[in-house]
Design brief:
The complex is a heterodimer of chains A (about 350) and B (about 260).
Chain A lengths: L16 E6 L4 E8 L3 E9 L1 H5 L6 H23 L8 E7 L3 H18 L3 E5 H7 L11 E6 L4 E6 L5 E6 L5 H11 L7 H10 L21 H16 L6 H26 L4 E5 L6 H14 L3 E2 L3 H4 L3 H14 L21
Parallel strand pairs in A: 1-4, 4-5, 6-9, 9-10
Antiparallel strand pairs in A: 1-2, 2-3, 6-7, 7-8
Helix pairs in contact in A: 2-3, 4-11, 5-7, 5-8, 6-8, 7-8, 8-9
Chain B lengths: L13 E6 L4 E8 L2 E9 L4 H15 L9 E5 L5 H18 L3 E4 L1 H15 L9 E9 L4 E9 L5 E11 H14 L3 E8 L5 H7 L6 E5 L4 H13 L18 H10 L3
Parallel strand pairs in B: 1-4, 4-5, 6-9, 9-10
Antiparallel strand pairs in B: 1-2, 2-3, 6-7, 7-8
Helix pairs in contact in B: 1-2, 3-6, 4-5
Bound molecules: zinc ion.
Zinc ion binds next to helix 4 of chain A.
């Protein structure tokens, strides 16, 4: 049954199609990817409009929405890719980390498909997906440093070789995206507020300088809760004095502090570990201020930088296929007893 | 629509049925109303891990493949939100991938129908010409149950009296008792399913001393398959894409939002 349809994969007998499913948070996404790198389709159904009214993602509602759309998105992904179910050679799915109820829908759908089609199943790490989104747009040169910035994650990951993940720095409290959303709320932007803060910071003419949280001199870890508090107390301070807080100067101050610290640490890590490449990924990689600063720092350091386009930075299934490809090529498959894991170690997921 | 009584091969119906709305994982192969094989396991909160391996095992040991099935039947809830989603997601995806009809069945009705089958087997199916009420209950915490009511008799009657809902067991049991008292057509009332948890409330509702009876029993996917087959033979089909669990209530956040918008 597998790979026998030469009409669809004419180039060589080694062509293979992975169908990937991602449902770890509030996006239902299905992709069909050829040979681990060529995106035939990458359908993303966002629930953001639903969750907006609650001011954040409601796990139970996210799970309900995933069930509502899962087979619709599966069908759309096949149609867009111009392939049929019998052409699919393997099924990949986000196993974790993420919201357990949301993950479960994708995992059960993926296992059902693997059973129905009698093809291998690959449980995939969500962050490995964000990192390997870069493999959909360019060649990764090892050793590489990946700076992962998203709503749920802020990590510096060392890849000494392909598929080997070592976390050298992580946030001790809020993720960058989380800090952005909290500050956005203080600045009275609707959820999700990250992009508003980015835009306001870009346009600002003044900056209220806020502290940088570097932690211990040799640490690659992050902490953003103090910075968030600094924003809040600045707002309070000016209100107490009967002034109107300068939101744009605050947004800029906040953004500059975040960018200084994350890019500063990433560059230092690249130097210390002799990285040949920097990878930026995760939903917050769409932040213009962050992209620009990291680009110029990497240029100064003579370090090649890869950043996926926005659609591959936010949660999507093509990135899951790209990471699953690491395991596909090594024949490392999951069983039908694959379990969704709200907490899953990236390092342990290494090939 | 398939014609009953048609003697050609086509009149035979084979269904794969399963349910994960309760602590039990139950799957069955039902052919022409007869249970061929089934699996029952208890792995609370872990249905998602074993469900597909169990289904695969069930099919394999009966020499069946997806193409041999006429339909996929599933318990649509109510029950544990996460639990119901697991079976519904598997059923939708399998039906879609195998291109087979999907038949949703109320998990409560299946629980009741399975109990009724057990009562009949034990010659507890009541008095001729009078009904027995079957009241399935699943614990929904804080004194609440997911429940409904069916009227059955020994000549094959099976009718819905009350639809699936979430109710306070104390009020519900009292109401059933009152209605049974004034309804001369009803000979007996059986509370079935998760009765152990709510035995006190049921006993407190009892007035006559003999009418309300209890049968503790687990979900039986054979009943899911049998009920689905009845619908299947009538030409009914569920739409795979729009098929969703019957939660019987809004998510808590939605309920709060609606209450807030009304100024409550
Ligand atoms: Zn993500």
């Amino acid at each position: 049954m597998n790979g026998s349809n030469d009409a669809v994969s004419p180039s060589s007998t080694s062509d293979y199609l992975l169908l990937a499913i991602e449902t770890s948070c509030d996006e239902t996404s299905v992709a069909v990817v050829r040979n681990g790198r060529e995106i035939l389709s990458n359908v993303i159904s966002s629930q953001i409009e639903t969750h907006k009214q609650f001011g954040g993602v409601v796990p139970e509602i996210a799970s309900r929405k995933h069930v509502e759309s899962i087979t619709i998105i599966l069908e759309e992904a096949l149609r867009e890719a111009g392939v049929g179910l019998p052409d699919i050679d393997g099924v990949a799915v986000t196993q974790g980390p993420g919201l357990i109820g949301a993950l479960l829908v994708g995992v059960v759908a993926a296992k059902s498909l693997a059973l129905a089609l009698d093809v291998p199943l690959i449980g995939t790490h969500h962050i490995a997906g964000h990192i390997y989104a870069n493999h959909l747009v360019g060649d990764i040169v090892y050793p590489a440093i990946a700076l992962v910035v998203s709503g749920g994650h802020t990590e510096i990951v060392l890849l000494e070789e392909e598929g080997k993940f070592r976390i050298i720095g992580r946030t001790r409290d809020d993720a960058v995206g989380e800090a952005y959303d909290k500050v956005a709320r203080a600045l009275q932007f609707p959820y999700p507020g990250g992009p508003y803060v980015d835009k306001l910071a870009q346009e600002a003419t003044e900056e209220i300088v806020l502290p940088r949280s570097w932690l211990e001199p040799d640490s690659y870890d992050f902490s953003f809760s103090g910075l968030k508090s600094a924003v809040l107390s600045e707002i309070n301070r000016s209100r107490m004095k009967g002034e109107t807080p300068d939101f744009s100067a605050l947004a800029r101050g906040f953004q500059q502090s975040v960018i200084d610290v994350v890019t500063g640490k990433a560059i230092r890590a690249a130097k210390e570990f002799g990285a040949h490449q920097m990878l930026l990924c995760g939903g917050v990689a769409a932040n213009r201020g962050l992209r620009e600063r990291l680009s110029s720092l990497c240029e100064e350091a003579g370090l090649p930088l890869l950043i996926p386009p926005n659609k591959l930075c936010t949660d999507n299934a093509a990135m899951i296929a790209a990471a699953a490809d690491l395991k596909w090529r090594r024949g490392q498959f999951s069983t039908l007893d694959l379990k969704a894991e709200p907490i899953l170690s990236l390092e342990d997921w290494s090939v | 629509m398939k014609t009953i009584g048609n003697r050609d091969e086509d009149s035979s119906v084979t269904l794969l049925s399963f349910d994960t709305s309760t602590v039990a994982f139950s799957a069955a192969i039902v052919k022409d109303g007869i249970l061929i094989d089934s699996i029952l396991s208890f792995s609370e909160r872990n249905h998602s891990v074993r469900i597909l391996s169990e289904i695969k095992e069930l099919l394999t040991r009966n020499g069946l493949q997806g193409k041999d099935l006429d339909a996929i039947a599933v318990g649509q809830g109510p029950g544990s939100y996460t639990g119901v989603r697991i079976a519904v997601t598997a059923a939708k995806t399998l039906a879609w991938a195998w291109n087979k009809p999907l038949m949703g069945v109320s998990s409560l009705e299946a629980l009741a129908f399975g109990a009724w089958n057990a009562l009949r087997a034990a010659n507890e199916d009541g008095v001729p010409d009078r009904d027995t009420w079957i009241v399935p209950i699943m614990d929904a915490r804080r004194g609440q149950v997911y429940t409904s009511r069916y009227a059955a008799n020994e000549s094959g009657k099976w009718e819905t009296v009350d639809r699936d809902g979430i109710r306070l067991i104390s009020d519900w049991a009292s109401r059933i008792e009152e209605e049974a008292t004034s309804d001369s057509c009803t000979a007996a009332v059986w509370f079935v399913g998760d009765t152990a948890t709510h035995l006190t409330a049921i006993q407190q509702a009892e007035k006559s001393g003999t009418r309300l009876r209890v049968l503790a029993c687990d979900m039986d996917a054979a009943a899911v398959g049998q009920l689905a087959e009845l619908r299947f033979r009538q030409g009914e089909r569920d739409d795979v894409h729009s098929f969703v669990p019957n939660y019987t209530q809004l998510a808590e956040a939605e309920a709060k939002l609606i209450a807030a918008s009304r100024g409550e």
